[in-house]
Design goal:
The protein is α+β, with helices and mostly antiparallel strands. Helix content is about 30%, strand content about 45%. The strands form 3 sheets. Strands 1, 2, 8 and 9 form a 4-stranded antiparallel beta sheet that branches.
Length: about 200
């Protein structure tokens, strides 16, 4: 199945104390560790928009309103939460074409987003939208993602810190040093919002 991955980079610098000569200056060990937490997505996000064009701005809006109302009613019949379907943008304005540009009409573009954890409703929703809107709909994007990323980021960070300390302790032992506390830690996070998501820690 589809999995998710969050990437978090943790280059860490530790104090190292020389055990053989007390008068030696403090030395440091710098390590970098990576961890991954793979999880299955729990949410599908569908973005699409309805575009209507007519010589009359009033008629263009009326056409767009009618299509969007039908889609909203049809989506309501599916197994999705009431607040999972919403308008995300509305644009109304003239449309020009050709060189030199000439007015060809007025365009109304209304964008929507559908979020659902019921994956079996995604294809029926797309089918309904296409059936109602026809050539006036554009499916912008469909992503499968993890809704609550924070808990997986925390887990990836914990694992990365554990791996970094294990690596630093080994290097310290090989160099007859005693490992102290970290003196610097930096983190970078990478996240893919597509169909393949990863939760990782460096």
């Amino acid at each position: 199945g589809v999995t998710g991955v969050q990437t978090c980079a943790l280059p860490i610098c530790f104090f190292g104390i020389n055990l053989l000569r007390a008068d030696d200056a403090l030395r440091s060990i710098q390590v970098e560790a990576r961890s991954e937490v793979r999880v299955a997505p729990d949410e599908a996000v569908l973005d699409f928009y309805i575009s209507s064009l007519d010589e009359s701005i009033i008629k263009a809006k009326s056409i767009n309103d009618g299509i969007c109302l039908k889609i909203a009613r049809a989506i309501k019949q599916l197994n999705v939460e009431a607040d999972a379907f919403r308008v995300t943008d509305l644009q109304i304005g003239p449309r020009y074409d050709g060189r030199p540009p000439r007015l060809v009409g007025y365009e109304v573009i209304r964008s929507f987003q559908l979020r659902t954890g019921a994956f079996n409703e995604v294809e029926p929703a797309i089918a309904v939208i296409l059936e109602i809107a026809g050539n006036e709909v554009e499916i912008d994007e469909l992503n499968f993602r993890v809704k609550d990323q924070r808990q997986h980021q925390i887990r990836a960070r914990e694992l990365a810190m554990q791996y970094a300390r294990e690596k630093a302790e080994h290097l310290a032992a090989l160099n007859e040093m005693k490992l102290g506390q970290p003196i610097s830690i930096s983190e970078s996070i990478e996240y893919s919002d597509g169909s393949n998501e990863n939760f990782s820690g460096f």
